Amino acid sequence: MARLCSSIFLFLILLPHLIIPTAYSSATFTLVNKCEQTVWPGILSNAGITPLQITGFTLHKDESKTITAPSSWGGRFWGRTHCTHDSTFTCLTGDCGTGKIECSGAGATPPATLAEFTLDGSGGLDFFDVSLVDGYNLPMMVVPQGGSGPNCSSTGCVADLNGACPSPLRVMSGEEGVACKSACEAFGSAEYCCSGAYGTPDKCSPSAYSKVFKSACPTAYSYAYDDKSSTFTCAGADYLITFCPAPTTTSKKSSDEQNPNPNRNNNLNSGNSEMVYEGLMDTSSAISNTCSHVWVGGVSLLAVSTIRRWLGMLI
User: According to the UniProt entry, where is the signal peptide (predicted)?
Assistant: First the structure.
């Protein structure tokens, strides 16, 4: 056992020189419609990011569609509702203004509930959120499938804010509330938009209107500087995006409770050492007491998986 521990120690010293950094290959986004009505998802890639091949499509009740995005992708998804196919394609909410189902580089006209992603960002992590900053039109939930990290959890808004929308923010179609504007969209003032003199976190505070959103949907962005409770991160995850999810979806946790995607083995920077320690302890509890003196801070998750394979050959 002493020989084994010495070998592990030497291996960890040489590890930075042995491992060639790798990037995530891709991530999949599975969009599911659990609404009682048809939803037309729209997709917009971030500026400077190569657009996905598909930028809009039809999703009937209980249908799903899976889209693959490269590791470098960043952008947003949303649902369009109450759409018509007359001479041109138009929607009462979330319309992207192209006159077609494909949004082709155009974003959602507010109000619209947004699911926002930046894949393989700082530290090799995916960053994601569900945002009501541009208002609300549909309940939406994002649930990571597989992946890891202390903040790799589901987020979204399952509440019906169209019914609970404050009257100055309501978007109506006849007698039906179909969307709920943000206070910025409704009033256009710098105070509500976190712009001008209110353009910094210390100057822009939650408004009475954004607090309505936050109370109904605690993990969703309710205003521009709502970062602390609304940004989530995962390493190596795929994502399930559900329109009109059942309330029980909020209790889902990702990470080890989900099946990991074997195609997304990753090279995670050492900025999150807690994740590394947990991964290593799970690797081999049998040697944890004997070899606890071996320091492994900064070893990437790729290194941990490599150690697993290496130990399998030694023991």
Answer: 1-25
Domains (ranges, CATH) in the chain?
A: 2-21+267-314 (no CATH), 26-260 (2.60.110.10)
Q: Where are the extended beta strands (E) located within 86-160?
A: 89-93, 114-118, 126-131, 140-148, 155-157
pLDDT at 34: 97
The two structure tokens encoding residue 189 = 């003032």
C-alpha dist (Å) from residue 28 to 45, 56, 70, 71, 240: 15, 16, 9, 10, 8
Of 71, 38, 237, nearest to 138 (Cα)? 38
User: Which pLDDT score, from 0 to 100, does residue 314 have?
Assistant: 39
The predicted pLDDT at position 103 comes to: 98
pLDDT-flagged residues of the chain (< 50): 1, 4-5, 8-23, 249-315
- DSSP for 187-243? H--HHHHT-GGG-STTT----HHHHHHHHH-TTSB-STT--TTT-EEEEEEEEEEEE
Q: How many CB atoms lie within 10 A of CB 97?
A: 13
d(CA 146, CA 11): 28
Tokens representing 56 are 């809009």
Global pTM reads 0.73
**pLDDT confidence of residue 246:** 86
DSSP string, 272-308: -HHHHHHHHHHH-GGGTTTTTT---TT--HHHHHHHH
* 94 contacts 80 by C-beta, under 8 angstroms: yes
Tokens of 239: 């994502």
Closest residue by Cα to residue 163 from 183, 182, 181, 177:
177
